[in-house]
Amino acid sequence: MAARQPFTYMDTADEAVRATCDDATICKRFATSKGYWKDPYIQYFARSVGERKAPEINRGYYARVKGVNHLLDAFIRNSECNCQVINLGAGLDTTFWRLKDENLLPKKFFEVDFPTVVARKIHNIKTKPPLSKHLIETHSTDSLILDTQSLDSDRYCIIGADLRDISALDEKLKKFHLNPDLPTVLLSECVLVYMTPSQSSNLLRWAAEIFHTAMFINYEQVNMSDRFGQVMIENLLRRQCSLAGAELCQSLDTQKERFLKTGWEHADALDMMTVYSMLPQDDVARMECLEFLDEKELLQQLLQHYNICWASKDKLNLGLSRLSF
């Protein structure tokens, strides 16, 4: 019998990163239960609403969801749905189901995450008819692939893979019919920051080399060199969760530069306080009436320490560099 491999620091760090998937899902479940935005599918990935979350956390998630969705939907509309989406580190995200409901489904929607996260998500999809129904409705052939670490249908695919292993990632995506010639939007939310700068650069460079017309939307921390940022890092370290890529989160400029240095033609970045001010203000006003916010300064600090950075290359001249808020 083979000797049991010792449990390494990398295993512990990866487990802590995987736990952030549950954190995000639970926070989204609570915020939607309060009416911050609508997501009828998140309930199938988080069993209960859970304990109360502070209003500033709920507003932060509102800005995150609305901001990322704004750019994603703009890209899909710009390509008239003749595109593909790759959600990197997707976790228990429900975007595929939202796009299906809103008639914005791309040619194919890919998700990639750790195999253990993927196995959980596939189990939920298999056992929850409101989730599996959408797959059945968008699948017309007899080629459905379903096992513990991958799911592949005509329009939706989940792959278990490590984003730090580019060759294996590339091989698995191509196996499930990734089309390099289609306009492609890649999403990552609080994912690159858990990779070393060289690891995330390899991922960005791979994407820039594979796709000639693409956008990469990245949501994560920024302004991490000030005291508030350092406290954020220390709090995560106490959970054995290291921000290995924090040096690229020093400013909006470092966020943009990481893309421009890895083959992307155009890059923009805004902190979430700015994004918050640019969202449709009638809906922001509705949302702000849901709960009284006492800690307005704390909300401002939180939003100033997260950003959305989006980069593009545009051989097909779809006007991707003009997509903004």
Spell out the blueprint of helices and strands.
Blueprint: H1 9-33, H2 55-78, E1 84-88, H3 95-101, E2 108-113, H4 115-127, H5 129-137, E3 145-146, E4 150-152, E5 156-160, H6 166-175, E6 184-189, H7 197-210, E7 213-221, H8 227-237, H9 252-260, E8 266-271, H10 272-278, H11 281-288, H12 296-304, E9 306-314
Function: Methylates the carboxyl group of the C-terminal leucine residue of protein phosphatase 2A catalytic subunits to form alpha-leucine ester residues.
EC number: 2.1.1.233
Protein name: Leucine carboxyl methyltransferase 1
Question: How would you describe this structure to a colleague?
Answer:
This protein is 45% helix and 16% strand. By secondary structure, the protein is α/β, with parallel strands linked by helices. It has one domain (23-322): Rossmann fold, CATH 3.40.50. The protein has a nine-stranded mixed sheet with strand order 3-4-5-2-1-6-7-9-8, with helices on both faces. The radius of gyration is 19 Å and the shape is globular.
Largest sheet: 9 strands, mixed
> Any idea how many domains?
1
Structural class: alpha/beta
Overall residue-averaged pLDDT value: 92
Note the quaternary state here.
single chain
Q: Mind telling me the CATH class? A: Alpha Beta
So how many helices?
12
CATH topology type: Rossmann fold
Topology as a string of helices (H) and strands (E)? HHEHEHHEEEHEHEHHEHHHE
Number of strands: 9
Give the percentage of residues in beta strands.
15-25%
- Through-space gap between termini: 58 Å
| Strand order, sheet with most strands | 3-4-5-2-1-6-7-9-8
Q: What is the radius of gyration?
A: 19 Å
